TrEMBL record:
It is found in: Membrane. InterPro entries: Cit_transptr-like_dom, MatC_N. This is Dicarboxylate carrier MatC N-terminal domain-containing protein. It holds the Pfam family MatC_N. Residues 1-147 form the Dicarboxylate carrier MatC N-terminal domain. Residues 294-438 form the Citrate transporter-like domain. Keywords: Membrane, Transmembrane, Transmembrane helix, Transport. Its main location: membrane. It comes from Glutamicibacter nicotianae (Arthrobacter nicotianae). The lineage of its organism: Bacteria, Bacillati, Actinomycetota, Actinomycetes, Micrococcales. The chain crosses the membrane at residues 26-45, 52-72, 92-116, 137-160, 172-193, 316-334, 354-381, 437-458. It is a multi-pass membrane protein.
Length: 462
């Protein structure tokens, strides 16, 4: 037991050192995994390396490459412009539209890419008299929902790690759980932060129903708020290309938008083909390899436009691949040593398996509010193995609950998402936003596990 405890302590220390020193977690994790595996577990180096998750690597590279092409060739920007323009002056719809847009962008490989909607959504919210907290939570909930799509990072890591430890979890079910949970949170936020006032308003927008917002391309955007805070998004182009202007430019209409090019039309067809392929294969009982499908459709897009295909290679999320690979390799060593079973046994001592599942979800949410959600998912999902081994609780329900609990807290101002939401409002509004996001994020640490364990795990026990 001593070696298992030492390995677990080293695992936690690597997280702490990487965070404090601001170094890449995956690099340190991989090196530490080799050291722990060889010196503490008496494993051969080839056995340590065999724990590197090649299947997840294929998923991440394929998905991020596919959607990077869609971003580079301007397809994503075109879709956003048309969607926002169609809303017109209907202010009450804006939070829901931004929820959907953010979810769609977050589903394209990298959840944090959805943050590109903040410099568009927050100025719109101010112009239309919408509480910035409501708009921020709409974007945050959309990011969490889209992040669990079968084509996005949270979803890939969660169901990929679950499958690696022989826990069956349908990626579409995981996405559905995340989508429903976050939409319920959006409805709650709507009624808590000014939604009823928007419904009662006789005017459809802050300037009346006869005035439409103007969306114009501009090369003179102010400094990007993510750059000031040191953050980056995978789809930052749209924030530089779209600027909200009220009474500053001629009214934009659908006829003034540039038409879709042949390359963009091909990209849209490939995106539809990818979704249709995943859904169709799942319906007939097959287990679609989303990474391979992304490579197939990306190949078509690359052949149609080689230039964008070449440019998209640099946008593959290699950093995340390395981080997830390092963490899972270390977790594989811990499993080989029996350390994961030791933790699971400790969790089971909390009481019944139901309470143990609640405890793990609580820990996942609490840590994720301050640290990497992706890292937490890769590290905590294997802890569910001992809980589901005896069949008292259903594995997919616990994993889905754990995944969503670790994500809905990301609006905390101590995380990248929450800090970005605070950074994109006016200076005088930031103290209020920070305080409310702290309350919301910390409340989700408790509300999330109770709600999701109650809705997913308890019904499957009967």
């Amino acid at each position: 037991m001593t070696t298992q405890v030492i390995a677990l302590v080293l695992f936690v220390l690597v997280f702490a050192v990487a965070t404090l020193r601001k170094v890449h977690l995956g690099v340190i994790m991989f090196a530490a995994a080799a050291g722990v595996g060889i010196w503490l577990a008496n494993m051969a180096l080839k056995d340590v390396i065999s724990g590197f998750p090649v299947s997840i690597l294929v998923l991440l590279v394929g998905v991020t490459y596919f959607f990077a092409i869609a971003q580079v060739n301007g397809t994503v920007d075109q879709i956003i412009e048309r969607a926002v323009l169609r809303v017109g002056d209907r202010a009450v719809l804006l939070p829901f539209v931004f929820f959907a847009l953010t979810a769609g962008i977050a589903a394209m490989g990298s959840p944090l890419a959805g943050l590109v909607m903040t410099p568009i959504g927050m100025p719109l919210a101010k112009k239309y008299g919408i509480d910035r907290m409501l708009m921020g939570l709409a974007i945050g909930c959309g990011l969490s929902a889209g992040g669990f799509a079968p084509t996005s990072l949270f979803g890939i890591v969660t169901y990929g790690t679950a499958h690696a430890v022989d826990i069956e979890l349908n990626p579409l079910v995981l996405f559905g759980v995340a989508l429903v949970a976050n939409f319920i949170l959006l409805i709650a936020a709507f009624f808590m932060f000014g939604g009823p006032k928007l419904l009662r308003s006789k005017r459809t927008g802050a300037f009346g129903s006869n005035h439409k917002p103007n969306f114009a391309r501009s090369s003179g955007m102010p400094e990007h708020p993510f750059e000031r805070q040191g953050f980056a998004t995978r789809s930052g182009l749209v924030a530089e290309k779209i600027k909200v202007r009220i009474n500053e430019a001629p009214i934009a209409t659908s006829s003034s938008l540039a038409p879709f090019t042949l390359v963009q039309k091909t990209t849209i067809l490939c995106m539809m083909g990818l979704v249709a392929s995943v859904v169709s294969l799942s319906l007939i009982g097959q287990d679609p390899d989303i990474g391979v499908l992304c490579f197939v459709f990306a190949s078509v897009m690359t052949l149609v436009d080689p230039a964008t295909g070449k440019g998209a290679v640099s946008k593959i999320d290699w950093s995340t691949v390395l981080m997830v690979g390092g963490i899972i390799t270390f977790v594989g060593v811990l499993q080989e040593m029996g350390a994961v079973d030791l933790l699971g046994h400790a969790a089971s001592q909390v009481g019944t398996p139901l309470l143990a599942a609640l405890f793990i979800c609580f820990i996942g949410g609490l840590i994720s509010a301050f640290a990497s959600t992706t890292g937490m998912l890769a590290a905590l999902v294997p802890l569910a193995i001992p809980l589901v081994a005896n069949g008292d609780i259903t594995g997919w329900a616990v994993i889905a609950a754990l995944g969503v609990c670790s994500s809905i807290v990301d609006v905390s101002p101590f995380s990248t998402v929450g800090a970005t939401l605070v950074a994109t409002v006016d200076v005088d509004e930031r103290p209020r936003m920070s305080k409310l996001l702290t309350r919301w994020g910390m409340s989700m640490v408790v509300v999330g596990p109770i709600g999701l364990i109650g809705a997913l795990v308890i019904p499957t026990m009967f």
